[in-house]
UniProtKB/TrEMBL annotation:
Classification via Pfam families: WD40 (PF00400)
Domain of life: Eukaryota
InterPro entries per the UniProt record, alphabetical: WD40/YVTN_repeat-like_dom_sf, WD40_PAC1, WD40_repeat_CS, WD40_repeat_dom_sf, WD40_rpt, WDR86-like
PANTHER family in UniProt: PTHR44489, WD REPEAT DOMAIN 86
Natural source organism: Rangifer tarandus platyrhynchus
Keywords assigned: Repeat, WD repeat
Protein name: WD repeat domain 86
């Protein structure tokens, strides 16, 4: 195992915990959303803060960065669109009546999920609600979108998949707003959700300690992944392998097609709160305030990154740098050079959409003793 990594840079400008970290498609910028009610844009070239995004009236729950615009959502019930060059707020999306905890920009559409039990589709240009998706009996925690190529003509406008604390996931026809399927089987809140590359199979993780695979067109439950001993908090899907991070302090790797468990990644001292696969390495973030790098094929622990004081809520990797965002308010940059090279060709970029459960990880946000 490699030694503990030292941070290249510590960005401590936020005055509250960082809830989410997003990397732009071109890899040039990062966006952080914080408990202090602001978001910040950062350069991946040198880690400097490029812009301070101010305007929300409560904490920022989630954010997504595109090449030309940034999007944030907040406990103030709004979503905001920002200019990435000037930091100016371009649009405020109003309509939700409770905390907006997740957004997703895809196919020139903006989707959102809220504690008000609804998901919504918005016109990005006009800032108006184009469609409301009503049917969940509790808050909508996570979102995924399947574009038109993967579905037949009847749902040619694409499908939105939502996961809720009501123990279900729902599949919605975006064009009509109608519920296409309700995915029933979980006995606890659906905390995380990911679609495969064709967009027809959904994988959901829950507080019931299972991961489940579903055909989103038929609504059929395809298989159940049972071995975790705690809530499944985050998922990553790469090369037909599903990686699941859990409150039981492990990550498990499964064959997506069969549900067979391939390996278990241990060494965490608290819940696994974030996952990112990159070039043969699985990076994890944990409630023990450490990030770790594992050889994805063997499961061997290669490096531990120490320095944060609270739970790591989100991680990103770009080039030879690992970025970690924590409830301690810091964004840390780590040098990942020197990790063993991947044993196979680098995979295509993961299509997963992760969800960092704010409520589920809150218990992990406690001061830690030095190792």
């Amino acid at each position: 195992m490699g030694g503990g990594g030292s941070a290249l840079r510590v960005c401590a400008d936020h005055r509250g915990g960082i809830n989410w970290l997003s990397l732009s498609p071109d890899g040039q910028r990062l966006l952080t959303g914080s408990e202090d009610g602001t978001a910040r844009l950062w350069s991946t070239a040198d880690g400097t803060c490029c812009a301070l995004l101010q305007g929300h009236e409560s904490y920022v729950t989630f954010c997504q960065l595109e090449d030309e615009a940034a999007f944030t959502c907040s406990a103030d019930c709004t979503i905001r669109k920002w200019d990435v060059l000037t930091g100016q707020c371009l649009q405020v999306f109003r309509g939700h009546t409770s905390i907006v905890n997740r957004i997703l920009v895809a196919d020139n559409q903006l989707f959102s999920g809220s504690y008000d039990r609804t998901a919504r589709a918005w016109s990005v240009d006009r800032g108006q609600v184009a469609r409301e998706f009503r049917g969940h009996r509790n808050c909508v925690l996570t979102l995924a979108y399947a574009g038109a190529p993967c579905v037949e003509e009847a749902v040619a406008g694409g499908l939105l998949v939502t996961g809720s604390t009501d123990s279900t996931a729902k599949v919605w026809q975006v064009a009509s707003g109608c519920c296409h399927q309700t995915l029933r089987g979980h006995t606890g809140a659906v905390l995380c959700l990911v679609l495969d590359a064709p967009g027809r199979t959904a994988f959901t993780g829950s507080t019931d300690a299972t991961v489940r695979a579903w055909d989103i067109l038929s609504g059929q439950q395809l298989r159940v992944f049972r071995e975790h001993q705690g809530s499944v908090i985050c998922l990553e899907l790469v090369n037909q392998h599903v990686y699941s991070g859990s409150a039981d302090r492990t990550v498990k790797c499964w064959l997506a097609d069969t549900g067979e468990r391939v390996r278990t990644f241990t060494a965490h001292r608290h819940s696994v709160s974030a996952l990112k696969y990159h070039a043969g390495t699985l990076f994890t973030g944990s409630g023990d305030a450490r990030a770790r790098a594992f050889d994805a094929q063997s499961g061997a622990l290669r490096r531990v990154f120490r320095g944060h004081a609270f739970v790591i809520n989100c991680i990103q990797v770009h080039g030879q740098v690992l970025y970690t965002a924590s409830h301690d308010g810091a964004l840390r940059l780590w040098d990942v050079r020197g990790l063993p090279p991947p044993r196979a060709a680098a995979p295509k970029r993961s299509l997963s959409r992760l969800f960092s459960n704010k409520v589920g990880c809150a218990a992990a946000a406690a001061p830690l003793q030095p190792a």
